[in-house]
Design brief:
567 residues, alpha+beta, four-stranded antiparallel beta sheet, extended
């Protein structure tokens, strides 16, 4: 009888989670065979079952190192022997939990194997091509190929691919590029068996038999019991008798009196030289070579006030000088006519000044500049140049001064309200009674008050004849209302664009004109003093609003708008 048992360390299928190694033990299989060594070896060879994964998908990448360059194909397959992902603590999780949260913080069981070379350079290929298989649980492959799930959990696909690349690097020693990973759409398995090569190969172990997380598992070494006592770390090798370094009672001897710390004794517990100095935290050499000034000192405050006054005066002078000279060059150019303007051909206009942006910032001139108030110092003391603390005498309010003066003289200020002032009042405080907490009026009183208010309003209303006379007087006054008219325009079509010419004889330039263009409509707005109504033109064809150009012609007093046709 021969028993074939698959040990945990050499099982044909090894699930490799992220942090812990999970293995699967298969129960022993018992065979009853004749006593023949050949038969026993045959049964031992048949002990390992054939593992052939199912189709998944294929990705392609390249190696980051030059020594193992070329294309790398990774066949990501599935097999039901691969366990489901578990939580970091080792507890199993449900499928719904994975669909809602992904596998970012979980232990994922997978395996890598069946590494092979497809083409060599010596065979005529431009570069060497390699292929390796990776096997996961069928659920993970199904979720990887589900676009809606991967849109919800964006890091699912990169996480799964990084697991495979890390395992390949640790087993084979080849670092593959994660940035250049792409899906091979024409096929789902590279270099397979069968007529079309789409049947996955049988699973084979990688050359590296060590698991990628074996280094993190602590290794327990058996403790060896030592029979002999350990040797001391420091040994005195001086020959002869060893004498003690200190004798007992050496401080009480007459020879040691006053010699340990001298005549002055120990300096421990004595206040240092700069004790109580508010600037004692500054090194002594720095204090002697630098002048340290407290910003709260009156002398410093006075110097700062004078400096600010001088800076303010200089700023006012500079602003006044700038206002006088800022338009000087402009006035000189206006006074000198352009000598080349007469040489322009007929119908041509002088080139305008080129501006990158045409933005009117004049509205910001009306904003008032608000100066931030300077921070008020709350301290009532300062440190002078010699390091002495001094107090600042600030002027107190007049009310406090008078109160303090009264207290100093000994005369108490009279109270604002005297006791019993209601009893000595010559006239009543409220002759008709206080209106506070007054009872609400009844319905009859409210109706009477409404009738009185109506009679007063009727009496104060003027007669009909007076109203008519007032209306006739107002109608005789003529108010001058500006007359508005619609501008004249002409729309012409060309092969490449539309030409819109708007007549504006009252305008001198494009200042104040607003142009708004959409695909099928052009709108122009004019200044209020021009006497022109806004113009809205429906376009026969679609145009490109971002490429519209407008130009004002002083000679013809027209606004020419070029509207390019849309493709």
């Amino acid at each position: 009888v021969v028993s074939a048992v698959y040990p945990a360390q050499q099982s044909p299928w090894r699930s490799r989670p992220r942090r812990a190694r999970r293995t699967q033990s298969i129960p022993p299989v018992t065979f009853r065979l004749p006593a023949d060594r050949g038969c026993v070896q045959a049964i031992a060879a048949m002990a390992e079952p054939v593992l052939r994964p199912s189709l998944g998908f294929c990705v392609q990448t390249v190696s980051s190192s030059s020594s193992s360059g070329g294309k790398w194909y990774i066949n990501v397959c599935k097999h039901k022997l691969c366990e489901m992902p578990v939580a970091y603590s080792g507890k199993p999780v449900s499928k719904d939990w994975i669909l809602a949260n992904g596998i970012g913080n979980m232990q994922v069981a997978f395996d890598i194997g069946s590494f092979r070379k497809l083409k060599e350079r010596a065979e005529g290929a431009k570069s060497t091509t390699y292929c390796v298989d990776a096997v996961f649980n069928p659920l993970l492959i199904q979720l990887f190929m589900d676009d809606e799930f991967c849109k919800t959990i964006e890091n699912f696909r990169p996480f799964l691919i990084n697991l495979v690349l890390k395992r390949i690097e640790e087993s084979i020693g080849v670092r593959l590029s994660a940035e250049k990973v792409k899906l091979v759409k024409p096929l789902r398995y590279k270099d397979g068996e069968g007529c079309d090569g789409s049947v996955p190969r049988e699973f084979a172990e990688l050359p590296g038999n060590a698991d990628c997380f074996d280094e993190e598992v602590p290794k327990h070494q058996p403790a060896t019991a030592s029979t002999a006592d350990p040797d001391p770390l420091i040994t005195d090798m001086t020959p002869g008798a060893k004498k003690p370094v200190m004798k007992k009672g050496f401080l009480n001897s007459s020879r040691a009196k006053g010699s340990l710390y001298g005549e002055g004794g120990s300096g421990e517990g004595v206040l240092p030289e700069n004790a109580g100095d508010p600037l004692g935290y500054i090194p002594k050499k720095l204090r002697n070579t630098c002048k340290i000034v407290d910003c709260n000192a009156p002398e410093y405050q006075e110097t700062e006030r004078k400096r600010r006054e001088v800076e303010q005066h200089n700023a006012l002078n500079a602003e006044f000088k700038h206002e006088l000279t800022k338009d000087m060059e402009k006035w000189v150019k206006l006074a000198q006519p352009d000598k080349w303007e007469e040489d322009l051909p007929e119908g041509a206009e002088p080139a305008s000044e080129v501006q990158k942006y045409d933005i009117d910032y004049s509205r910001f001139d009306k904003l008032d500049e608000l100066d931030e108030p300077a921070p008020v110092e709350q301290r009532d003391w300062y440190i002078d140049g010699s390091g002495v603390r001094r107090s600042i005498e600030r002027p107190r309010p007049q009310a406090e001064t008078s109160a303090a003066a009264g207290e100093g003289i000994g005369v108490a200020a009279p109270p604002a309200v005297k006791k019993g002032f209601f009893n000595d009042a010559k006239s009543p405080l409220y002759p008709k009674g206080s209106e506070q907490a007054k009872a609400p009026l009844s319905d009859e009183q409210l109706l009477k008050e409404l009738m009185v208010e109506h009679e007063r309003a009727t009496a104060s209303t003027p007669s009909t004849s007076a109203v008519a006379a007032e209306a006739e007087r107002k109608s005789s006054v003529k108010v001058k209302v500006p007359e508005y008219k619609a501008p004249e325009f002409e729309l012409n079509e060309t092969l490449e664009s539309l030409q819109l010419a708007v007549s504006v004889p009252v305008l001198e330039s494009m200042q104040g004109v607003e142009l708004d263009v959409t695909e099928r409509r052009a709108t122009l707005g004019f200044p209020a003093n021009s006497g022109l109504w806004p113009l809205e033109v429906e376009l026969p064809v679609s145009v490109v609003p971002t490429q519209v150009k407008a130009k004002y012609s002083k000679k013809t007093r027209h606004i020419n708008v070029t509207l390019p046709r849309a493709a």
